[in-house]
Amino acid sequence: MDTSDVISIDEINKPYLVWFEENWVHDDVLHHHKKGQLVYVESGFQYITIEEKKYLLPQNHAVWIPADAVHKTNSHSEKIKLMIMFADIDSTDSFYHEVNVFSVPPVLKEMIKYAEKWSKNTAENKDETLFLGALFNELPHFVAHSLKLHISLPKDKRLTKAMDYLHDYYSKDIKIEDLSDIALLSLRTLERIFKKETGLTLSKYQQMLRIIKSLELLSSDHLTISETAYEVGYKSVQAYTRSFQSVMKFRPTDFVKNIK
Q1: Residue 5: pLDDT above 70?
Q2: What positions does the domain HTH araC/xylS-type occupy (predicted)?
Q3: Are residues 138 and 218 in the same domain?
């Protein structure tokens, strides 16, 4: 559910608006707001496309979406708890003008949960304004080491069939030659277009797909780390752990511990 279906966010005449949903339902429609937007996943997981890049929000992660950035939710787990905060930000800090995905530290988590008391309150409230003003003022400091978990969605239609295949069979051993045949492109042309459109080599893109999918599986709490590793295509837990750590900068066990 896009909150703009119920409340026209851009018509709210207050600096901040809090919106909490126990069971969020996505609408898969591109839209934008004049306010910046902080989206926090309390439980479950959410995919969000922002300016043609697809981001994953696992449990206990958040994303800052700059004002006027075109975005939509793509898919989510069966049950998802989301806290969304809209904010008018008048700052030259680069943080507020970029997409930032990050693990939410304990202090920020408690502040976000405290703000739930103002959920869907469209009337301006002095205490709410003061509290959320402090939260957003400190936001860049809370996420100084944020990690962008995203994969770019190619615009070049020549890659469509190859990318569909890659996203469907990311857990298999895929060679660039396989995609070349599917795309009906020469190996050299495919490699050039793929790198230009995604910013990554095939192996790196597939690694990102596997790690992002594994975060989704771990967040759903249905599979163990070992089961997840094999499910996304790794031959051993050790190989998965090395790959995970190279992307995330921490281990799968740390992630699981954080979402409990």
Answers
A1: no
A2: 160-258
A3: no
Residue position matching structure tokens 């511990």: 257
| 3-state secondary structure labels for all residues of the chain | CCHHHCCCHHHCCCCEEEEEECCCCCCCCCECCCCEEEEEEEECCEEEEECCEEEEECCCEEEEECCCCCEEEEEECCCCEEEEEEECCCCCCHHHHCCEEEECCHHHHHHHHHHHHHECCCCCCHHHHHHHHHHHHHHHHHCCCCCCCEEECCCCHHHHHHHHHHHHCCCCCCCHHHHHHHHCCCHHHHHHHHHHHHCCCHHHHHHHHHHHHHHHHHHHCCCCHHHHHHHCCCCCHHHHHHHHHHHHCCCHHHHHHHHC
Do 165 and 139 fall into the same domain? no
Q: Is residue 92 part of a domain?
A: yes
User: Looking at the domain assignment, is residue 107 inside a domain?
Assistant: yes
- Domain count for the chain, please give it: 2
Residue 93 shares a structural domain with residue 175: no
What tens digit of pLDDT does each residue of 66-119 get? Answer: 999 999 887 555 567 888 999 999 888 888 999 888 878 888 989 999 999 999
Which pTM was predicted?
0.71
